[in-house]
Amino acid sequence: MQRVCFLLKVRADRLDEYRERHAAVWPEKLEALSATGWHNYSLFLREDGLLVAYLETEDFAAAQAGLAATGINARWQAETAPFFESLDGAGPDDAMKPLTEVFHLA
Questions:
Q1: 55 with 43: CB under 8 angstroms?
Q2: Torsion, CA 60, CA 61, CA 62, CA 68, rounded to 10
Q3: 22-63 confidence digits (pLDDT tens)
Q4: What pTM, to 2 d.p., does this model score?
Q5: Which domains does the chain have, with CATH numbers?
Q6: Known SUPFAM superfamilies for this protein (predicted)?
Q7: Is 22 annotated as catalytic?
Q8: Which residue out of 3, 22, 39, 75 is catalytically annotated?
């Protein structure tokens, strides 16, 4: 099982709305995440907008590709892209660059 962590930056003026959106994630989006191998997926948001994401999956590339193939993901990405800084025209999924794990206490 791969443990994956990545960072994004939520715009300071959209923090409350971002929290609200994630308090009510669409059921179809949740189903798509589970069906495509996203397990123990968590988002942590700091007050300055730093977003830390963590998930476990058998194969991150396959999980990303599977999710991208769903229609619900394209809708979610289009609606959530304006929440983020520095995407340079990419969607949030394209900006997910996994961090290198340097320690894990098993």
A1: no
A2: 110
A3: 999 999 999 999 999 999 999 999 999 999 999 999 999 999
A4: 0.89
A5: 2-95 (3.30.70.100)
A6: Dimeric alpha+beta barrel
A7: yes
A8: 22
